[in-house]
Amino acid sequence: CPRCMQCDTKFDFITRKHHCRRCGKCFCDKCCSKKVPLPRMCFVDPVRQCAECALISQKETEFYDKQLKVLMNGATFFVTLGTSDKSELMVCRLSNNQRYLVLDGDSHYEIEIIQISTVQILTEGFTPGG
């Protein structure tokens, strides 16, 4: 690729190209300067990523750090989907490739992790530290 895929800067001896470790596209140093861990692709140490991918990777990392133990083992939840008033008892777990939340009950759903914008943990009925 002769030019940055973000800002269209031409690559030369001074302006070198870099590959985002997540999407693989070519960028200049300014457009691909973020360094974030990418454990699901076996990059434990922070690696170079474009701004868009770095944001997604950071969200995934935060989500996995907070929820990984519960998600790998699976846990039972009452899930209310969309605008429904009815809650369904479902087992929620992380898929083997760690890209989807799998919800199993009477229904089966797979939700792509990068599509999740917020997670709210409700502790109603439990005492703190209990």
TrEMBL record:
It comes from the Eukaryota. Keywords: Metal-binding, Zinc, Zinc-finger. GO terms for molecular function: zinc ion binding. Residues 1-53 form the FYVE-type domain. The gene is Zfyve21. SUPFAM superfamilies: FYVE/PHD zinc finger. This is ZFY21 protein. Gene3D superfamilies: Zinc finger FYVE domain-containing protein 21, C-terminal (2.30.29.160), Zinc/RING finger domain, C3HC4 (zinc finger) (3.30.40.10). InterPro entries: FYVE-type_Zinc_Finger, ZFYVE21_C, ZFYVE21_C_sf, Znf_FYVE, Znf_FYVE-rel, Znf_FYVE_PHD, Znf_RING/FYVE/PHD. PANTHER family: ARRESTIN DOMAIN-CONTAINING PROTEIN D, ZINC FINGER FYVE DOMAIN-CONTAINING PROTEIN 21.
